[in-house]
Every structure is written in C-alpha cells, then in structure tokens.
Amino acid sequence: MTPSPRSRRWDYDLLRVGSMVGVVYLHCAAAALRSASGAVWHFANLASSLATAAVPLFFMLSGALLLSQEGTADLSALFGRRLPKVLLPLAAWSALVVLLTLLRAGPAAALEQLSALPNTPAMVPYWFLYALIPVYLLSPFLKKMADGLTDAHWNYLVLLWLVLTIGVNTVRDFLPLESAWRTVFTVHWTLNVNLIGGYLGYFLLGARLARLRRLPSRRVLWLVSLACVLIIAGGTWWLRRSTGAYDESFKSYLHVFTALLSGAVFLLARSYGEARRSGRLLTFCSGLSFGIYLAHPLAISFWESLWPGWMGSTFAGMGAHLLFFAAVLLSCFAGVLLAASLPGVCFLLTGQSFRTACRECNLPSLIKTRGPN
C-alpha cells in the first residue's frame, strides 16, 4: 500500500526532488558547457558540478528504500507492482519518441530506432532506467543478502566497489593516454566485479548509508560536499584550458569525487530531515519527479527547436540560459501534472496509480477538501 503523505520521509523526498531538478539542469546546460564562454560557462560548470550527484542519488535512494522494505524479497511484488512502475512508463515514453521520429524522419529511421530499443535508449537520459531495471530484477536476492550482513560485511562490500570500480576508474581516466599503466587500471572481462556498469555500487551504498547509526558531523559533511564541488568544477575548468575542449572526466559518475559528493549530500539530508515527514508541497513535487525525468528530454528538444527564433542561443547570456532551464522544467511540471490527472494515462506516463496521484500529486489532489487530521 502506498504510504500517506504524513508517512513519507522529508529527507528522501527532498533528495528525489533535488535530484530531478539536477538532472534536468545537466541536460539543459549541455550545450552551454560545450560552446559557451565567460560567466555563462562558469555558472553552468559550477551548477553542473553540484548536479553531478543527481543520478547517483537516484540509485542510492532506490537502494535505501528497497533494501529496507520487507516486501522487496517478494517476487510477486516485484513483477506485479515494482517493475511495471518502471518498465511501462519507459515503454510508453520510448514509443512516443519513436512515433515522433516516424513523423519527422520517416519509417526507416523510426524502424531503426525501434529495433535498437532493447540495447539503446530512445533518448540518452533514459539510460538510467536501463541500468535501474537490472538492479530491480536483482533486488529480491539483494534484500535477502542485505538482511544477513553484519556491519563489517557491509563495509567490505562497499569498500570493494570503492576500490575496484570507483578507484580503478578514477586512476585510469587521469593517466596520460600514452601511459602503459592505463592497461593495468582497465577492468578486464574476467577480473571484473563492475556489476551493472558499476552502478549497483551506488544502490548498495545508499542502503549502507541509510543504516548508519552514527552520522558524521554536519560541518564535516558540508566541507566534503563543498570541496568535491570545487574540485569537480576547478578540474573541469583546468581541463578545458589545457585541451581547449569540454571534458567531463571530473564529472564522471564512477569517479571518486562524485561518489564522495553523493554520499555526503545523502548524509546531509539524513542529518537534517530523517525524523521529519514530508509536507504537502514536497510530497506533491516528489510524486511528479519520475514523470518529469521521463518528459524532460522531449521538452528540451521542443524548446531547442523554438528558442533560436525567440531568444537566439540558449546560452546567449545568463538570463537566456536560466530562462531556458525554467521553460523546460516548468513545461515538464505542467505536462506531467496534467498527465497525472488523467486516469487513462496516469500510470503509463508517471509510473504511479491514478488513486495515488489523486491523493498526492495531481489536479484533484490540489482541489480536494481535506478532512480533519
């Protein structure tokens, strides 16, 4: 049963909404980071350095939630409820993208895109769901495993990932291209614990950090977060000056800076809000976040087709850059809110039942009269 708004955790909902906004900004800023200069580029670089934690935080939230729920081990719950909430919206939005390709580029291009869907997402940002679905499929076994782990085993499991995935990837990507040591730090297909591209580690990291009984001090967490953002932004700026091109090495999801930033932000949210319950506004935004994630690539494509005729470049100035981001985010919000208000498409486009949406995050939920608490 879906929890009521009063039973929702403030920290998890805040992270979900913040991560959704971060992902939308990352893709809105892509053109500016590759082509802009001056104040717009520096702002986009700094903001995207913070937003780099968004995708890892989505994986971590899934791990923290799924591995703490008894129903996760139930196969009927996996195939009857949890997996359809991801698979069906992904299929629906992918079908919409293929349909638009058919209308714009013809049957041959649409057929090519359709035939590639089992291995290639219809739009690049959907890769996250291609990684999340295998994690969901493994979640019943991971739940059984997690229930039997001691703190020492949890620490060992996370350490394996930090060393053999995060550590190895970080060292390899910062070695000179001509260095013979790059081969040593390249994961071999036989010596490989890099499960699901390494993203399973964030799922397990979220579950581990959710179980911590004693959190680091907020001062330490703020310092780690700030230091990581500055290192990521400063390193990206340095690489651009050195090579003349935008390089995302410091922003890789599988590098140590992003892993530390994501862990620190997750614990900061726990520190400030673990005992708090989400209010109506945060619950409302959280309920729409998955739909907005699915809608935003199409929204960006739509606004990019119109923007040059109205405002010129999407990064012609700071105002244009921020206005473009606001237009994408608000149009997604409005569109998903409308979709969540229509019984026939609510589940397909948002991943939640119409009944849940009516309680938390659609137009009926805004206008209904609440009874006494």
From TrEMBL:
Keywords: Acyltransferase, Cell membrane, Membrane, Transferase, Transmembrane, Transmembrane helix
Family note: Belongs to the acyltransferase 3 family.
GO molecular function, a single term: O-acetyltransferase activity
Spans traversing the lipid bilayer: 12-33, 39-66, 86-104, 124-142, 154-171, 191-209, 221-240, 252-269, 281-303, 323-349
Domain Acyltransferase: 11-338
Name this protein carries in UniProt: Acyltransferase
Membrane topology type: Multi-pass membrane protein
Main location: membrane
Compartment list: Cell membrane
GO terms for cellular component: plasma membrane
Keyword Transferase annotated: yes
Any GO BP annotation: enterobacterial common antigen biosynthetic process
